[in-house]
């Protein structure tokens, strides 16, 4: 797993790198501030970003928000502070796990596992929603095209559906593409 570490304290960065490398992780980048963390995440496309909350230039929460909004990688937040408002801000920014310093390797690994699995679940759900949205849009177009064919050619609904289905097979294309052509021709005929 490729990891970017964003921590303004060099000693903590070094300890974290050692812990991760001992567990077989590949630390591909290190940042000392939030802006650099975002830039490295965009450039390197890591599998995980571990980010301190308090950093110069841009705090870790703002950096985490940019990284997660771009769906680059899951973010584990590190902080010396366990105040509820920071935890809520980190959660709202899209952080997938939160560790309070000082932490041990035994604390880090479960947080990484939780962050990566939650991120994978989120991506799977987004893909499913996108697929459902696409299918719904295609269904709407096909329904409109059926209506156009029924009106224009006096077909029944099953006949219009079969016509679209047959045209899709004959042209080796999708029913959605056929529906778009039918609707485009209708618009051209009516001057819409």
Write the layout of secondary structure elements.
Blueprint: E1 2-6, H1 10-22, E2 26-31, H2 34-44, E3 48-52, H3 60-69, E4 75-79, H4 84-92, E5 97-100, H5 105-153, H6 157-170, H7 175-190
Parallel strand pairs: 1-2, 1-3, 3-4, 4-5
Helix pairs in contact: 2-3, 5-6, 5-7, 6-7
Write up this protein.
This protein is an alpha/beta fold. It has seven helices and five strands. Strands 2-1-3-4-5 form a five-stranded parallel sheet, with helices on both faces. The model has no long low-confidence stretch (mean pLDDT 87).
Key features of this structure:
single chain, 5 strands, alpha/beta, 192 residues, 7 helices, five-stranded parallel β-sheet
Quick take:
This protein is an alpha/beta fold and about 190 residues long.
Helix content: 55-70%
What's the alpha carbon Rg, rounded to whole Å? 26 Å
- Terminus-to-terminus distance: 54 Å
The helix/strand series, from N terminus to C terminus, equals EHEHEHEHEHHH
Give the count of helical stretches. 7
Quick check: average pLDDT?
A: 87
